[in-house]
Amino acid sequence: MAETKRRLHQPVFRATVMRAYETRCTVCALGHGELLDAAHIVPDSNEAGIASVNNGLALCKIHHAAYDVNILGITPELIVEIRKDLLDEIDGPMLQHGLKERHGQKLMVLPPTRSERPDRDLLAISYERFLSGG
Ligand SMILES: [Zn+2]
């Protein structure tokens, strides 16, 4: 029952997040909807993980995956952090530009409407999980 309810909300959640972020990844500003997801800050398996725009981020596929596995974290102050072991690694352009160079940078795209921006408490829950490595 809860599962059905969640699924029904997904298209609305996606549409709301995409509109709020003007169809751009908040981390890298990529602007192609086909490559973007509406990500949950706190996953919907968590009680706090509601399908609200304040619990959402527009993320490209790579940044979404990196966020979900705690390779990429976002502080409550909206700063991107990359997991330490990746910062020490030397590899191709995706690691260099897509991940390492985002470390310490502010989110590039935020909803112009203040009430639609990411919730600080939800970011704190997620950032805590990032710091603990999962
Ligand atoms: Zn991105």
Structure description:
By secondary structure, this protein is an alpha+beta fold. It has one domain. The chain has 5 helices and 4 strands; from the N terminus they run H-E-E-H-E-E-H-H-H. The radius of gyration is 14 Å and the shape is globular. 30% of the residues are buried. The mean pLDDT is 93. Bound molecules: zinc ion. Zinc ion (ZN) binds next to strand 2.
Overall mean confidence score, pLDDT:
93
> Helical element count?
5
Give the distance, in angstroms, between the N- and C-terminal Cα atoms: 28 Å
**Structure classification:** alpha+beta
Q: Per the principal axes of the C-alpha atoms, what is the gross shape?
A: globular
**pLDDT < 50 stretches:** none
Helix percent band = 25-40%
Q: What gyration radius follows from the Cα positions, in whole Å?
A: 14 Å
Number of domains: 1
Query: What fraction of residues sit in β-strands?
Result: 5-15%
Q: What ligands does this structure carry?
A: zinc ion
Main pleated-sheet profile: 2 strands, antiparallel
Total count of strands: 4
Spell the H/E element sequence. Answer: HEEHEEHHH
Trace the largest sheet across and list its strands: 1-2
Q: How does the SSE layout of this entry go?
A:
Elements: H1 2-20, E1 36-40, E2 56-60, H2 61-68, E3 72-74, E4 80-82, H3 84-87, H4 93-99, H5 120-132
Antiparallel strand pairs: 1-2, 3-4
List keywords for this structure.
two-stranded antiparallel sheet, 134 residues, single chain, 5 helices, alpha+beta, binds zinc ion, 38% helix
